[in-house]
Write a structure and sequence with these properties.
The chain has one domain. It is built from 5 helices and no strands.
Length: about 170
């Protein structure tokens, strides 16, 4: 999109992944202090979607786009631990293995299909569409998180670790 070098692109990917790991660390503390995991997931994914869509416009320029993409990794990372807590809260007693198997096999299918779809976009030079497509997927995850939250009984403490935020 911005004609950056291969090295700059790989640096951006590395920054995205490192910021994602840092976000995961911070997200663990967030997940331990909030009872509404679905809202944390929804907010984190919505922020990430907005950042990706902003990058997809091409208005930010190369350097700022790379910085914002790293920030996207941080936002997605923050949602990870809360996503796991949300799934745990929504899982019926005795079905943990089946539920986690379904959720994570679904993620793996998405990870397998995405390169084909987004690779086709990139092969055609539709770089902005790649970012908008990823933003769309994140917005779908916002809807899924809020839907799970509506169907899950009220906030429960998990081993005494989750406390409602005031």
């Amino acid at each position: 999109m911005h004609g950056i070098s291969f090295e700059a692109a790989t640096l951006t990917l590395t920054a995205y992944m490192l910021c994602g790991a840092l976000g995961m660390l911070v997200g663990g503390f967030v997940a331990a202090r909030t009872a509404n995991s679905d809202r944390v997931v929804a907010i984190a994914m919505a922020v990430a979607a907005v950042l990706l869509a902003l990058c997809g416009t091409g208005l930010l320029g190369a350097t700022l786009t790379m910085v914002v993409l790293a920030g996207t990794g941080f936002a997605i990372g923050i949602g990870g631990p809360s996503r796991d807590m949300m799934i745990k809260k929504a899982t019926p007693k005795g079905a943990t293995g089946r539920v986690y198997g379904m959720v994570y096999s679904g993620l793996d299918v998405g990870f397998a299909v995405s390169p084909i779809l987004f690779g086709a976009f990139m092969d055609r030079g539709w770089y902005g569409a790649t970012l908008f497509g990823a933003a769309t997927v994140l917005l779908l995850s916002v809807g899924a998180a809020l839907g799970v939250g509506r169907r899950t009984p009220g906030p429960r403490a998990l081993n005494g670790a989750a406390r409602p935020v005031r």
